[in-house]
Amino acid sequence: MGVLELNEKQAMAVAKLMDLDPECKIFWDSRGKFPKFIKGTLSRPSPDSPESIARRFLEESRELLERQEGLDEKLELAVLETDFMGFFHVVFLQLLSGVPVFEGSIQVHINPAGEVIAYKDFRLMELSVSLEPNIGEPDAVKTVFEDVGPGKGTVILSTRLMLYRDREEQVHLVWQVESLSSKGLAGRFYFIDAHTGELRYKFSQIRAALSRKTYSGHNKEVLPGELLLEDGQAGPDEIARAAHDNMATVYWYFKHRFGRDSYDNRGSPLVSTVHFQKNFNNAFWSDHYKQLVFGDGDGYRWLPLAFALDIVAHELTHALAAYTAKFVYSEEAGALDESFADVFAILISNRGKIEEWEIGEGVYTPFHEGDALRDLSDPPKYGQIDHMDNYMRLTPGELPDQYKNDSGYVHLNSGIPNRVACLIIAGGTHYGISVEGIARKKAEQIYYLALTAYLCSATLSRWTFREARYAQLNACRQLYGEEGPEYAAIKNAWAAVGLGQPSGALLIVKGEVSPETPVPIPDLDPKGVLSVIDVEEEGLVKDIRVKVNIEHTYTRDLRITLLTPAGGTVVLHDRKGLPGKNISRTYNLGSAPKLRTCIGERVHGKWRLWVADHAREHAGSLVGWGLKFLVQKAEKKELRRELFLWQEIPDNDPKGIESQIYIERPGKIVNLDVSLGITHPWIGDLRVILLMPSGEKLMLHNRTGYSRREIKKVCSTKWDEDLQAAVSKEMQGTWTLKVFDLAERDTGTLDSWGMCIVYE
Questions:
Q1: Mean pLDDT of 232-252
Q2: Does pLDDT of 207 surpass 80?
Q3: Can 8 be counted among the known catalytic residues?
Q4: Which of 103, 115, 315, 486 is labelled catalytic?
Q5: For position 152, what pLDDT does the model report?
Q6: How far apart are CA 701 and CA 722, in angstroms?
Q7: Catalytic-residue membership of 89
Q8: Closest to 336 (Cα-Cα) out of 448, 388, 411
Q9: Is pLDDT of 391 > 60?
Q10: What does the CA dihedral 471, 473, 476, 477 come to, rounded to 10 degrees?
């Protein structure tokens, strides 16, 4: 977003910030109405309190915001934390006319000198919805009970009006209703439209604690139960001792590493209940009861879960996250909640270098060795996904449900940020992108600061993977700067799972065609349909994926071919597979090995998808398709070679003459110019061909020009179609110029020829 698109007041406010720090960076919302994030030195040093510094910065920055006239706004202090480096993190909650804004957080980050170094804004800048509800609180509660169903023992804990933004950024006045169900003992949140009564969103906050208290539920559904152990006591119950000791290990990890006093940083007791229910195969943190709960397992799928340090660490990290990032436990936010818990479980259960990346292996399926619940180094090993191309989304209109879709597939999708964490720490190559790992001590500092400061929120928040990536980059910038290997590792790890651009000489390029109406595929017509994606970026292909969406009543009629700018063809689907309807899939180097022929080609140019129906009766349409490349950014260079020969061309001799130029260095051709100098009484007798190292023949002159007496010209890929075959080809090797005289009476000479190659 350029400054020219800002209004006059905003432009002046930007200039003021640039005077303080010419290197500061501002990231605007899509309409240029307000800055979503600013980083740099944004204020002068101050000895005042962090809240005063933050409020003064917000007041002085008001001109940056294009706000609705007369907006009645109040900013309420929600969080004020000091991290282990002495930086202050201040979070405000936005209220409009006294109504809180769900996810309406403003973060102000301040260094020990009292300078604002970062600012993140999730406010509403305009309000077009009435703040007078048409639906009363009792009706909203009734909607909740109807959704829960009878006989569930549901209790309403709280209700309040809030302003809620849906996925399309439309604002609604809602009743936020928090309920508690005896089933799972989980808090559940509902957002009921206060004007229409419509259920806008819902989610459950159950997640599948130095003062310690460990209770026994005596295999009943009761919390907390009978007190067994307190603080440093010992006792005969082995499972209770394990829970008690493992909670202490987790407490001291966060205390020694980051100075954090319990999950809330206020010294709250770590409470747990063991022997919960009978044969209960789970463990969870309850936000409402503020305690851990452990089942004894059924002995077949699980042993008592309290025995596993990594599971205890996982659940206590959920507790920490509930007080900082406040993840909504659904979709991407829920997957992040799970992933941060997994990452700290691995960090806590591995002392020193991380040798074991699995979760729960010690108590999961005791009669089946060599398995675990999850593996951060290889998420697909236990059914998770490891790339955004495979991210599981709710269908349009579907709401998160703990039992129907795992609250928006939180445990499936958490494999993506889990793989990121392993790449950051251990390094490796994933989907063609290499990551140089960093020391675990640096990684855990980055992860803790990202979770507790840069993802800190005033309300429950639907944080996304993209925002978690930014939070880690900002934490790294505070700790280690943005020029070193730590920053590069984070960028490359997230790029490897499909989010953001990698660091250095790599680039991710995407293209997509989604016509408003599907393009019909003619029945029994080998010409088919052709769709084009024109890629403007430059560089060489390192990895490629082709996404195809076709609706068709019998897919074995179809042949789908990718045509590359260099003239290559890759058949992706060739009338094979099980009979069926529709094709909606992504072809990659694993599923379509012939795509490897694209590796090393220039990405620039027109990529075409050709879909043809080769049998009768069945019909369909091309709904859309897309390309995703990993591109090696390459510097363009120029190479020139020229020969001066004055070599005689034999009259009427089909053997002709040859002259060769050897190119010793490798490179992909971007542009080729070939210069010719020939003296001859009748150039209509001549044919001139350039033979490339790859074997292609390029026609430079073919018996035209008649009685003209010389050829002095430059042939170029820029304007000669006959030379287009050279683009993207390898230039290394022997180039052979062949000149033939194919008629009697006239002789001449090849005086000179040369090449100018622009290559990558």
A1: 84
A2: no
A3: no
A4: 315
A5: 67
A6: 10
A7: no
A8: 411
A9: yes
A10: -110
